[in-house]
Amino acid sequence: MPVRFSEVDALHIVWHGHYVNYFEEARRALGRRLGIDYPVFLEHNVGVPVIHLQLDFFAPARLGDTLRVTARLFQPASARLDYGYEITRPGEATLLAAGSTSQVFTTPGGELLLNFPAFLLDRLKDWDPLWSRP
Q: pLDDT digits over 91-104, tens only?
């Protein structure tokens, strides 16, 4: 994803708030591949608000850079979705930023669901062979 002029400050460095958008775009791309993008949750009357965001900066991204944003979904231990992110420049090993987000499941009215939505349980079973093992 190219860094756009509207994303940088006067020093041509990406403004820190845009990294959250980069995480969101990567999470949505992964969600589309896994069949759990926001429209799927909406079809099943389930909300998935972000309840935690962590972001660490290591090196600046600048105007003219192309960024590679990687998102990983971690195997859940409870009814939530935990993602990890890394931002690099393609072909470079330098880590520009890394972080994580956590999302929970809610009813349309915002009540917390303590269990995975039924439609997601089948998907979790299908993904079992894909989870990284320590």
A: 999 999 999 999 99
